[in-house]
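// run 5 | inverse folding | seed 20
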């Protein structure tokens, strides 16, 4: 289990305690053997090679530090604000909102091609006194929903995933909710209400429950969160992901950590390691943590809670991947290697400039632009392979490690319609514009196929489950490891 029994409730320094369709197989369109694809040399790029992200917590006040900013922009492709989106910052007095510090971080992320996790909307800590003093249920319900609505609306379209509710479960072995103003005044239903409100505000953002000490599968707290998520999924309560904070002692993750990840994922949610730090930063402990995520298809990313040891809320434990002067520690090399980066590369990888036919494993049919349709917005389908230009796609690699796939017949690229990121969105072709909705991360599967994950939505390219006939549409959906999300490059 995590080394903590109860996390500190105050800030420490600036930090709080607190692709391609899945499985696409690649083979050359011609007879030549594929060239080697060099392994990625940074954490973010190596994670992107498998359709994941590698992020860090960021403090707005440190963005002016050139060493800090250089490491941030070189290594990480996801950002979580440490304190800048918490309630005491964003709504210090009722109805008066301050999004300036959060905007500063979002602006930095946008200008450097990084995505954002929003942290956090409803939490018992770092809560202004005016909220904690409310004792009327109708008032508190209105205040909570208004806060969620205003903050999510302000950042709408710029946040990949929100920690909607944070640390709502107790550490006393009961598996029940902790006492808080929300629990005590609104009762058990406040978590569900927060998630339903969040979905109504931004249907495209992934909605996560985030907590600590839920890494060991047999712990009562872990089982309490698991039972809540299972209940939510069975009743259609909108929840997309579970964040496991992963503040570990020197021994690293518990032996059941991967079991915990896979068990939550089996409920139909993504899992994310959201606040990783490990006392003394053992390379083995970091490698084991990363490998556990890599071994679970729906573990979509890892965030470390700070960049340098000197930035950490646990600075005395030296728990991060970079020393105080910004030098890479041995744990960095271990994490990079576990991600699949820093080595000699995958000799069967996607070759930039090469032309491929993309065959979906479930149907054996290929990604196809309907014959005679070459205009912007032409919808994509699968069809029996015929070798024509409308079924051929040229791969080019982007600076973030993702790929753009250009249809040879039309000259237009595989595109997720701008602003449409929900499950079931049908794919099309469009003029290349360099947008994230035209960038696809390719994750290699055990059968040598690839899962293609759209950078804008975080969802996988697929043929709808159970549809395999000629003309079946091609869409995006949450990654689930199915053959309908596995693509072979031929």
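// decoded
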């Amino acid at each position: 289990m995590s080394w903590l029994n109860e996390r500190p409730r105050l800030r420490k320094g600036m930090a709080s305690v607190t692709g391609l369709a899945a499985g696409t197989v690649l083979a050359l369109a011609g007879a030549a053997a594929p060239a080697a694809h060099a392994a990625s040399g940074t954490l973010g790029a190596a994670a992107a090679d498998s359709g994941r992200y590698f992020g860090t917590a960021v403090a707005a006040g440190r963005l002016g530090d050139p060493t800090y900013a250089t490491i941030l922009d070189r290594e990480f492709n996801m950002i979580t604000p440490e304190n800048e989106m918490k309630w005491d910052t964003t709504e210090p007095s009722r109805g008066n909102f301050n999004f300036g510090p959060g905007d500063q971080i979002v602006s930095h992320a946008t200008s450097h091609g990084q995505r954002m996790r929003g942290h956090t909307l409803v939490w018992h800590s770092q809560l202004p006194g005016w909220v904690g003093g409310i004792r009327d249920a109708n008032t508190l319900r209105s205040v909570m929903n208004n806060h969620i609505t205003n903050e999510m609306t302000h950042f709408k379209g710029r946040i990949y995933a929100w920690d909607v509710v944070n640390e709502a479960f107790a550490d006393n072995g009961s598996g029940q909710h902790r006492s808080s103003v929300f629990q005590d005044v609104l009762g058990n239903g406040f978590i569900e209400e927060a998630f339903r409100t969040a979905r109504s505000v931004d249907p495209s953002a992934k909605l996560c429950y985030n907590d600590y000490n839920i890494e060991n599968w047999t712990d009562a707290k872990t089982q309490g969160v698991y039972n809540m998520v299972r209940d939510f999924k069975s009743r259609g309560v909108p929840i997309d992901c579970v964040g496991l904070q992963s503040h570990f002692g020197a021994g690293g993750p518990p032996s059941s950590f991967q079991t915990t990840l896979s068990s939550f994922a089996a409920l139909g949610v993504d899992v994310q390691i959201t606040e990783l730090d490990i006392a003394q930063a053992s390379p083995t402990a970091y490698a084991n943590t990363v490998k556990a995520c890599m071994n679970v298809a729906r573990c979509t990313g890892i965030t470390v809670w700070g960049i340098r040891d000197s930035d950490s809320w646990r600075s005395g434990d030296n728990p991060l991947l970079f020393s105080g002067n910004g030098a890479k520690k041995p744990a960095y090399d271990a994490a990079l290697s576990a991600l699949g980066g820093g080595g000699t590369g995958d000799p069967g990888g996607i070759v930039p400039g090469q032309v491929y036919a993309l065959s979906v494993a479930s149907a054996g049919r290929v990604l196809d632009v309907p014959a005679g349709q070459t205009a912007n917005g032409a919808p994509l389908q699968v069809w029996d392979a015929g070798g024509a230009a409308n079924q051929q796609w040229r791969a080019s690699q982007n600076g973030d490690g993702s790929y753009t796939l250009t249809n040879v017949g039309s000259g237009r690229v595989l595109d997720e319609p701008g602003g449409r990121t929900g499950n079931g969105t049908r794919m099309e072709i469009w003029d290349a514009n360099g947008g994230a909705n035209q960038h696809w991360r390719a994750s290699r599967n055990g059968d040598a196929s690839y899962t293609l994950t759209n950078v804008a939505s975080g969802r996988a390219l697929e043929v709808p489950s159970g549809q395999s006939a000629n003309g079946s549409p091609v869409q995006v959906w949450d990654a689930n490891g199915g053959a309908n999300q596995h693509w072979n490059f031929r």
